[in-house]
Amino acid sequence: MTQKHTTPDGLVIVDKPSGFTSHDVVAKMRGIARTRRVGHAGTLDPMATGVLVLGVEKATKLLGHLALTEKEYLGTIRLGQNTLTDDAEGEITSATDASEVTRDAIDAGIAELTGDIMQVPSKVSAIKINGVRSYKRARDGEEFEIPARPVTVSSFGVHDVREAVADDGTAVLDLVVSVVCSSGTYIRALARDLGAGLGVGGHLTALRRTRVGPYKLDAARTLDQLQQELTVMPVAEAATAAFPRWDVDARRAKLLTNGVRLEMPETYAGSGPVAVFDPEGRFLALVEEQRGKAKSLAVFA
């Protein structure tokens, strides 16, 4: 008798290769994990590499709640050239000698883009404008504006400034930067806006995501490694890492799994999603405090 293949529920932390879209990685993972139930928690541009969080089987129910979290990046910003896509994938639209830009000016420009800021996403992005993806409108040659939206850049640091000469002969500066920011922040928009503020233009030439919430690069595996050995973070472990934990007794556990809205301790008020565990350490549900009661967001028991 053939043994039925069962895919474990959990998160897979992928070190995404350059040139792959997030959807390409999901498609690849469906083959590796042998299931259709695979999704991702927030996309990563094709050019970028690094941490991409995938959910497999029941863990796909966690993904929407994981997306609203902090992210960390290492990247290279080139000052002296603008591109159509605000990164190295797009054609150069203007070039300006950046050799006279000082470190003090760079630091002042970065300070302007740190903290709670209003950011206009890149036109070649997945943002929907009246139901149509922005990148599609841009490819079709439409003239349109994307409204600015609030994002938080907790930290924006320059680790190195390198003088270089671009292929078109323009004197450029390459900045090696690290950024910690809220979900929804576009690093290529930071590159564009830094260059604009300095009057020389700018775009992103390399980007590596090193962290998404509590999930770091050291836990990530390449697609080749995952093909050899599928490493899945169990859904209970993933929930413990990402959300506050609420341990309930057996009576409350039964009530919760039967759809009863439990009274929640005040300590969880306003804390967003909370992971509920029974006395045996089983992950029961993701809940949110609403008027003192536990409102179920996703049930796993």
From TrEMBL:
<dbReference type="InterPro" id="IPR015225">
    <property type="entry name" value="tRNA_psdUridine_synth_fam2_C"/>
</dbReference>
<feature type="domain" description="tRNA pseudouridylate synthase B C-terminal">
    <location>
        <begin position="188"/>
        <end position="230"/>
    </location>
</feature>
<dbReference type="Pfam" id="PF09142">
    <property type="entry name" value="TruB_C"/>
</dbReference>
<comment type="similarity">
    <text>Belongs to the pseudouridine synthase TruB family. Type 1 subfamily.</text>
</comment>
<dbReference type="InterPro" id="IPR014780">
    <property type="entry name" value="tRNA_psdUridine_synth_TruB"/>
</dbReference>
<dbReference type="InterPro" id="IPR032819">
    <property type="entry name" value="TruB_C"/>
</dbReference>
<dbReference type="GO" id="GO:1990481">
    <property type="term" value="P:mRNA pseudouridine synthesis"/>
</dbReference>
<feature type="active site" description="Nucleophile">
    <location>
        <position position="45"/>
    </location>
</feature>
<feature type="domain" description="tRNA pseudouridine synthase II TruB subfamily 2 C-terminal">
    <location>
        <begin position="243"/>
        <end position="300"/>
    </location>
</feature>
<dbReference type="InterPro" id="IPR002501">
    <property type="entry name" value="PsdUridine_synth_N"/>
</dbReference>
<dbReference type="InterPro" id="IPR036974">
    <property type="entry name" value="PUA_sf"/>
</dbReference>
<dbReference type="Pfam" id="PF16198">
    <property type="entry name" value="TruB_C_2"/>
</dbReference>
<dbReference type="InterPro" id="IPR015947">
    <property type="entry name" value="PUA-like_sf"/>
</dbReference>
<keyword id="KW-0413">Isomerase</keyword>
<feature type="domain" description="Pseudouridine synthase II N-terminal">
    <location>
        <begin position="31"/>
        <end position="187"/>
    </location>
</feature>
<dbReference type="GO" id="GO:0003723">
    <property type="term" value="F:RNA binding"/>
</dbReference>
<dbReference type="GO" id="GO:0031119">
    <property type="term" value="P:tRNA pseudouridine synthesis"/>
</dbReference>
<dbReference type="GO" id="GO:0160148">
    <property type="term" value="F:tRNA pseudouridine(55) synthase activity"/>
</dbReference>
<dbReference type="Pfam" id="PF01509">
    <property type="entry name" value="TruB_N"/>
</dbReference>
<dbReference type="InterPro" id="IPR020103">
    <property type="entry name" value="PsdUridine_synth_cat_dom_sf"/>
</dbReference>
<protein>
    <recommendedName>
        <fullName>tRNA pseudouridine synthase B</fullName>
        <ecNumber>5.4.99.25</ecNumber>
    </recommendedName>
</protein>
<keyword id="KW-0819">tRNA processing</keyword>
<comment type="function">
    <text>Responsible for synthesis of pseudouridine from uracil-55 in the psi GC loop of transfer RNAs.</text>
</comment>
